[in-house]
Design goal:
12% strand, four-stranded parallel beta sheet, five-stranded parallel beta sheet, single chain
């Protein structure tokens, strides 16, 4: 997505909306003519031999036609430059040998996944071998199938599923050319000629001569009818056709690989015939090992650390689509290109990276919250994340990306104030320190009150810290809670109590969107889709990653049942939702203030 609201110059400064362009300076390669005696020099396209992500990034160049020579650049994802020692699906060896072979073609396989794959391929079977790879988008499901085809010498056939796909055409379909010839009387038009084999039939037929890996990609993007469609072929190892005799598969030469995200559940009958493997993103160590040969190592460390926060913050910062490894490499190469152009302005570079890391409006909103409030990105010069402008948020992202690569002129200033600007509820200091800090955010705290608050926050505690602020209306109870959140760098959540309030909604609340989707049948719904976390559950969950202050305002305005409602969460520091596993609180990161 490209935004055209302003144009930069070469030093990264923002210019006005009107931009006067210079004449084009693009140098085009000279055209070859018949009277040229000297041979044309052709530059080789640099391609990584171990490119799990490199191959994905270089996909833009695959299949491109060379203007100088008329040659076709080979597609490295499907090239056969790997020398196969023993051709065959059952020749992959032990899990350790399988991992080494996959590593040779650029796929870093986790030991458990390698063991699952080796067991499936080596164990005898009476039905077609089939595996289900389930995981988030970009975790390497399809690439694993391509790499398996390389190391086994198998032919790779791919079926990409989509809504409305004609399932009967997967077995056989009418041949338009043969039917036209039959109608014009050119040929007799036998059944074999009038009907062409579909992709499943071709995979079964080819398996009689050589190994075949048949990839059924994005299984959950098509209706559930496709699940039962595969039951017979997998169980019997045979395809029944209308136009010709049945086709049997060579069970040792055929592997079906299904991939899916989390769009819908798979039919139980099909699931019993598949070997399920849960996939996830590469762990940070493997991801950096794969990416570092292709760009600046420090840049990889910075981007991988940022991606880890986006992926593994649980629901505190819930991204719909965190960046995959190949996307991180693309970002790294873009940043490296901007550095070559001497673009080192933090805000401008951060804005460019912003739209590549978060590609949807929802993810951009979550990324903004993360950069404003997450303690890993605390800025001692701007301790209050709520007051940052969007340009300052972009600049913070730019500093994260360029850390250790471009010297920050404000580093010394940040270090000089860092010791008195620590994030965290337990870092408020002495009562005198607390009075001073609250004074900086315009709250004049009495010494006795400061002492009480400091004792609560500094004393070790095994349960959730909670305090009750009681006093007349307008005496500053809520303002004290807000001021504490500012000086601690805590995320501030507020629950205003009222008569008749449903206390159960503090744990979970029905999702109107999820219920509407379930009623219309647009998608299968789980309990997590139908129930959103309430404010108390969100506070407990966010405390895993950052300080949180939950203000329960005007507790005396609701029935007395709310008093007993909070007993368990405070005493046990745990919430028991109906739709999810229990949620523990980080007691050093959570403070509940009742007024």
């Amino acid at each position: 997505e490209i935004r055209l609201d302003f144009q930069p110059n070469f030093n990264g400064k923002k210019e006005a909306d009107t931009f006067e362009s210079e004449p084009s300076q693009i140098q085009y390669p000279p055209q070859q003519t018949d009277d040229v005696d000297e041979p044309v020099q052709v530059e080789e396209v640099p391609v990584s031999s171990d490119g799990n992500v490199a191959a994905g990034i270089d996909a833009a160049a695959e299949g491109m036609f060379s203007a100088r020579t008329g040659s076709v650049v080979p597609n490295q994802q499907f090239s056969r430059d790997y020398k196969v020692d023993e051709v065959g699906l059952t020749k992959v060896g032990t899990p350790e040998e399988l991992m080494l072979k996959l590593s040779d073609v650029g796929y870093q396989c986790l030991p458990f996944n390698a063991a699952q794959m080796a067991l499936l391929l080596n164990a005898p079977t009476d039905s077609v071998r089939a595996i289900l790879l389930e995981g988030p988008s970009g975790c390497g499901k399809s690439f694993m199938a391509k790499c398996l085809a390389k190391i086994t010498g198998a032919e790779l056939m791919c079926l990409t599923c989509y809504p409305g796909m004609e399932l009967k055409n997967l077995i056989e379909y009418p041949s338009t050319l043969a039917m036209a010839n039959a109608m014009t009387g050119k040929d007799g038009g036998s059944g074999d000629e009038l009907m062409s084999l579909g992709i499943i039939s071709r995979a079964f037929l080819k398996s009689q001569d050589h190994p075949v890996i048949f990839l059924i990609d994005e299984l959950d993007k098509v209706e559930t009818g496709i699940d039962t469609f595969f039951l017979g072929p997998i169980q019997d190892g045979r395809i029944w056709l209308e136009s010709r005799p049945p086709i049997d598969a060579n069970l040792d030469n055929l592997l079906l690989i299904f991939t899916k995200n989390y769009e819908r559940r798979i039919n139980d009958a099909l699931l019993r015939r598949l070997h399920p493997v849960a996939m996830t993103y590469l762990n940070s160590e493997l991801e950096r090992k794969v990416l570092k040969p292709h760009t600046l190592p420090q840049l990889v460390d910075n981007l991988s650390g940022l991606a880890d926060t986006m992926r593994y913050s649980d629901a505190s910062y819930k991204f719909e689509r965190p960046p995959a490894p190949e996307e991180l490499l693309r970002v790294a190469r873009y940043v490296q290109q901007m550095l070559e152009w001497d673009i080192v302005d933090y805000a401008f570079l951060g804005r460019n990276v912003w739209y590549m890391l978060a590609k949807g409006e929802s993810d951009r909103f979550v990324l903004e919250l993360m950069l404003r409030y997450h303690p890993d990105y605390y800025d001692s010069l701007h301790p209050n994340g709520r007051l940052l402008s969007i340009e300052q948020v972009y600049a913070k992202l730019g500093r994260v990306v360029l850390k250790g690569i471009v010297a920050d002129p404000d580093d010394e200033r940040r270090e000089s104030v860092r010791h008195v600007r620590q994030v965290g509820l337990v870092n408020v200091g002495t009562p005198a320190d607390l009075v001073k800090k609250l004074g900086e955010v315009k709250y004049q705290c009495l010494p006795f009150v400061a002492t009480q608050v400091s004792l609560i926050l500094n004393t070790p505690c095994d349960r959730v810290r909670a305090m009750l602020l009681e006093g007349p209306s307008g005496c500053g109870k809520s303002y004290l809670a807000k001021s504490l959140a500012k000086i601690c760098g805590a995320d501030f959540l507020c629950l205003s109590c009222y008569d008749g309030m449903n206390t159960q909604h503090l744990i979970e609340v029905p999702s109107q969107v999820g219920i509407a989707n379930a009623m219309t049948g647009k998608r299968a719904s789980t309990k997590e889709d139908l129930l959103n976390l309430g404010i108390l559950s969100r506070a407990f969950l966010k405390s895993h990653n950052q300080p949180v202050i939950l203000l329960v305002d005007e507790i005396d305005k609701v029935e007395t049942s709310i008093d007993t409602f909070f007993l368990g969460p405070i005493q046990d520091a745990i919430i028991y939702p109906e739709s999810r596993p229990p949620i523990d609180a980080n007691t050093d990161n959570l403070l509940i203030i009742f007024t």
